[in-house]
Amino acid sequence: MQLDATDLKILQQLQTDGRISNQDLADKVFLSPSSCLRRVRALEEAGIIHHYCAVIDATKVGIEVEAFVQVTMRRDVEDWHENFSRALQQWPEVVATYIITGDANYLLKVRARNLKHYSGFVLERLYKTAGVLDIRSNIVLQTLKDTHQIAVELMQDQY
């Protein structure tokens, strides 16, 4: 799908407020409501708008620990990647996983109620997973920036 300036404005508005009414969105991007709705549906169908969600303040619901964990796997264990990928899907503490370059194979973003919960996750699940050779944890002390938004300026050079 080729994006134009109006599509980029729609994406910017929806990233700021995913619950905005179609009428308000249309007003902000200078379209008729029906034209705006068609464009939003086209962005959804093309997979550019992936899904909508509420962003929850973890500390206000009792999630005190956030950690980034580098995991290095033993390559001599058969199906290590497939087994680890399956295990990740069962762990609610893991909120994001990336295959990375460098010394480790994976980078996990982990959330836990407290340090005891995090410790139990690492010792009872992560270390006991077949193929895990080493883990390196980085506990977040303070978050300075955390956004899911993609800057329109980054998208404009593409189109």
Automatic annotation (TrEMBL):
Keywords: DNA-binding, Transcription, Transcription regulation. Residues 3-64 form the HTH asnC-type domain. Gene3D superfamilies: 3.30.70.920, Winged helix-like DNA-binding domain superfamily/Winged helix DNA-binding domain (1.10.10.10). The keyword DNA-binding applies. InterPro entries: ArsR-like_HTH (IPR011991), AsnC-type_HTH_dom (IPR000485), Dimeric_a/b-barrel (IPR011008), Tscrpt_reg_AsnC-like (IPR019888), Tscrpt_reg_AsnC/Lrp_C (IPR019887), WH-like_DNA-bd_sf (IPR036388), WH_DNA-bd_sf (IPR036390). SUPFAM superfamilies: Dimeric alpha+beta barrel, Winged helix' DNA-binding domain. One of its GO terms (cellular component) is cytosol. One of its GO terms (molecular function) is sequence-specific DNA binding. GO terms for biological process: regulation of DNA-templated transcription; response to amino acid. SMART domains: HTH_ASNC. This is Lrp/AsnC family transcriptional regulator. The lineage of its organism: Bacteria, Pseudomonadati, Pseudomonadota, Betaproteobacteria, Burkholderiales.
